[in-house]
Amino acid sequence: MAAPSLFRIWISAARLRTLPLSVAGIVAGNALASQHSDFSWILFGGTLLTAIAFQILSNFANDYGDGVKGTDNENRVGPKRVLQQKLLSKKTLFNGIILTGVIGFLLAICTIAMAFGLEETQPILIFLALAITAIFAAYKYTAGKGAYGYYAMGDFFVFLFFGGLAVMGSYYLQTKTIPLHIAWFAMAIGLLSVGVLNLNNMRDMENDAVVGKQTIASLLGFAYAKIYHTLLLFFACVFLGVGLKQTADSLWHYCPIVVIIPLLIQLSKTIRIRSHVDFDGQLKPLALTTFALSLVILVTQLLM
User: How far is Cα 179 from Cα 185, in angstroms, rounded to an integer?
Assistant: First the structure.
C-alpha cells in the first residue's frame, strides 16, 4: 500500500469530521441574531472561519499532546492519530500548531474589526483576549504540563467554548447585546457538545485510566458515565425548550424541538452499549444532530 501524501496526512490530523460540531454554536448564535437590522453575512462567515481554525488548532494540539504523553498507544480504541503512526515528526506537528494558531488569531482580528471598527476599544480588547484564551485553551487541552484535559476539566471547557462563547459571543458580535434567552440556547448547544466529548471519553476510559488521564467518564465509571450522559442530553432538551418558549412567535419556530427524536434514539443505543469500542459509533450521530439543530434554528429564523 502506498504511503499517504503529505496533504492527506495533514487533512487526517485536522480531523475534518469534527468541524460540524465546532461551528454548531456559531451557526446557532448567528441564526438567533439574523433578524437584527445590522446582521452581516460577511461577519457570520468570519466567525465560522475563525471557529474552524481554532478547532483544527485544537485537533493538531490534541494529536500532539496525547502522542507525546504516550496516551495514544496500541491500546487506544479510537482512530489512530498522525503522531501515533509517526506520519509526522513532533517538530513538524508543533510547527503546524503554531501556524494554525497564527492564522486563527489573524482571522479573529479581522472578524473583530468587522464587528466593531476601530472606535469601540473596550469590546475589541475583550474579544481579542477571548481569542487568545481560546488559542491557549485549544493547546492546553492535552498538550504541555498541567494539560487540563488530563484533570477532568475537558467537559467544562467544551461547555464554555462550544456553548457559551460560540453562541453568545457570535450573537454579541452581530447585535452588541446578549438577551437572557440566548443563554438557554448556549447551554443546550454546550451540553450536547459535552455529550459528544463524553462518548469519546467513555470509549477511551480504560486506556485513559491506565495512562493516568482523568476524565469525568473515567472517574465515574462505566455505569455512572451513562447516567451522566443521560443527564447531559436531558437538560440540553429542557434548555432548548425554554429558549424556544421565550423566543418563538409561531409554531414554526418550535421546529428545532424535533431534535429530541434522534437524541432519544441515540441515547437508547448508548444505554444498551456493553463494550467501550461501541461508543465510537455514537460520536458522529450526536455531533451531526447538534449541527443539524443549529441549521434548523437558522432556517426557522430566516423563513419567519
Answer: 11
β-partners of residue 151 are 214
Give residue 289's pLDDT. Answer: 96
> What proportions of the chain, in percent to the nearest 5, are helix, strand and coil?
80, 0, 20
User: What does the pLDDT read at residue 55?
Assistant: 94
Q: How far is the CA of 258 from the CAs of 51, 71, 191, 271, 289, in angstroms?
A: 26, 38, 17, 21, 11
CA atoms within 13 A on the CB side of 294: 29
User: What's the whole-number mean pLDDT along residues 223-247?
Assistant: 95
Residues 273, 281: Cα–Cα separation, whole Å:
10
Query: 202-234: per-residue pLDDT in tens?
Result: 998 888 888 788 899 999 999 999 999 999 999
Contact at 8 Å (CB) between 24 and 289?
no
Buried b / exposed e across 141-155, counting CB within 10 Å, b at 16+?
Answer: bbbeeebebbebbbb
Nearest 10 degrees: Cα torsion 207, 189, 176, 37: 140
pLDDT digits (tens, 9 = 90+) for 265-304: 999 999 999 998 899 899 999 999 999 999 999 999 888 6
Measured CA to CA, the distance from residue 60 to residue 240 in angstroms comes to 32
8 A C-beta contact, residue 287 and residue 186:
no
Find out whether 124 and 44 touch, Cβ atoms under 8 Å. Answer: no
In the structure grid, which three cell numbers stand for residue 226, read together?
A: 451513562
Distance, CA of 57 to CA of 77 (rounded, Å):
23
Q: Please tell me the distance from the alpha carbon of residue 28 to that of residue 113, in angstroms, as a whole number.
A: 22
Nearest to 9 by CA among 69, 65, 86: 86
Q: Give the whole-angstrom CA distance, residue 110 versus residue 9.
A: 29
DSSP class of 71: -
